[in-house]
Amino acid sequence: MRFKFSLGTLAGAQTLAFLASLLTLQQSIFFVPANAANSILTEKKGQLPFTYIPYMSDVHTETVSAEAVQLAEQLKLTDSLIELTKLRKARSADRNSLSRDELDRYRDLKEDVVEAIEQTRMEVDFAEAELTREIAVHEEFLASYIAERNHRVNLSNAWGYRTNGVLWAVAEGLTIPTYARPRYSISSGIVGIVAGLAPSAFSLYALRQDAGGRFERKPHPNMLSKIFNYQVTPELEYPDSVWKWLNSQAPIGPKVTRLAYLIDWWQRDGNIRYFSPKPTHHQLDLLTATVQDELTIQLVSDRLSMLRTVDAMIVGMNRPLLELMMVVRGTKSMSAPTQ
Q1: What pTM was estimated for this model as a whole?
Q2: b/e for 148-169, b at 16 or more Cβ within 10 A?
Q3: Confidence class of residue 240 from pLDDT cuts 50, 70 and 90?
Q4: pLDDT at 96 > cutoff 80
Q5: pLDDT value for 98
Q6: For residues 281 and 48, what is the distance between their CA atoms, to the nearest angstrom?
Q7: Is residue 235 part of a domain?
Q8: Chain centroid, CA 316 distance in Å
Q9: Could you tell me if residue 131 is inside a domain?
């Protein structure tokens, strides 16, 4: 009897030690951060949709909007458009009222203005082409990384289901002969403990995969580079008209430039976690793709959000550009700026 008591005590101690080790393993799986990159993420209060600067363009008004006036001044077309409007009105009132020189002047002005508007539209397309390419690449990254994350989660869950079923089958199988061999209850209990803890460990591992893995790619700077004063290649350069538009203040709305408004929004947006109110150099390296040694789902999502808002801000130039073209065609008029 004394020998049996010692054996039971030893088995109980081993069981408790095994249980403690499994609990420690579970805690380490659950509490250790999934990625070292998480240390540079920023927790923010708000997670709101992006609020765009309101547009003023209206195709149904007789005169151009303040946005169109601003763009005309930036393109140095204001005087030409005003003169073109006057000549068109005079020509519409009496087709014979204009002299040959005035008609030549009218045609030259119209040709010059149309060329300037068309070039600006192409410059918008130039910037948008690179932004669209980068957005497409990052969307592919995001889909691939999410699929890889989901595969890990599904694989972990599958192993959890397998171990749970097999181990409980073994535990119950050992329980059956305990009426004749009571010592089997010890083995049955140990296997039952493992059957409960092993699936839990797999489940906790699956929870850790929520942020996905970390991936490494070659550095490839993007269109955010110039915004944060990084060196850029010709394909990442913004045309002068586009860059001037971004660095100008909208006639209505925030009393800051359009680009400053974008940066301020990125700093406040809780969905963008790699861009803090006071971004570090390492955060900017990751966002501009100057460094790509720890790509994550969150980082790719942040880049996508920022690239899309830049794209939306640039494409907005087409609205006042349309108004200027309507002035050329005579469906809108350009008034002289008030002093």
Answers
A1: 0.74
A2: ebeebbeebeebbeebbeebbe
A3: very high
A4: no
A5: 74
A6: 26
A7: yes
A8: 19
A9: yes
Beta-bridged to residue 249, according to DSSP, are 257
For residues 1 and 69, give the distance between their C-alpha atoms in angstroms, rounded to a whole number.
102
Confidence (pLDDT) at 106: 84
- State pLDDT tens for residues 56-74: 778 888 889 999 999 999 9
Q: Please state, in angstroms and rounded to a whole number, the distance separating the CA atoms of residues 158 and 162.
A: 6
Question: For residues 108 and 100, is the Cβ–Cβ distance under 8 A?
Answer: no
* HSE-up of residue 94 (Cα within 13 Å, Cβ side): 4
**Domain containing 115: what range?**
66-143+216-329
Q: Does position 335 have pLDDT exceeding 70, yes or no?
A: no
Phi, psi (deg, nearest 5) at residue 336: -70, 140
Assess contact for 298 and 46: CB atoms under 8 A. Answer: no
* Poorest-pLDDT segment among 33-47, 130-144, 246-260: 33-47
Q: Which residues, 6 or more positions from 256, have their beta carbon under 8 angstroms from its beta carbon?
A: 249, 264
Going by C-alpha positions, the residue among 222, 231, 238, 207 that lies closest to residue 313 is 238
Is the residue at 104 inside a domain?
yes
Give the model confidence (pLDDT) of 276-306 as tens digits.
888 899 999 999 999 888 888 889 999 999 9
- Residue 264 maps to a domain: yes
Q: How far apart are alpha carbons 115 and 103 in whole angstroms?
A: 18
Beta bridge partners of 215: 295
Residue with tokens 């010709």: 234
Q: How many residues are there in the chain?
A: 339
**Other C-beta atoms within 10 Å of 62: how many?**
9
* Phi, psi at 257, each rounded to 5°: -70, 160
Q: Could you count the other beta carbons within 10 Å of the beta carbon of residue 229?
A: 9
- For the packed helices 297-315 and 258-268, what is the interaxial angle rounded to 10 degrees? 150
What's the domain count of the chain? 1
Burial of 77: CB neighbours in 10 Å, binned 0-12, 13-18, 19+: buried
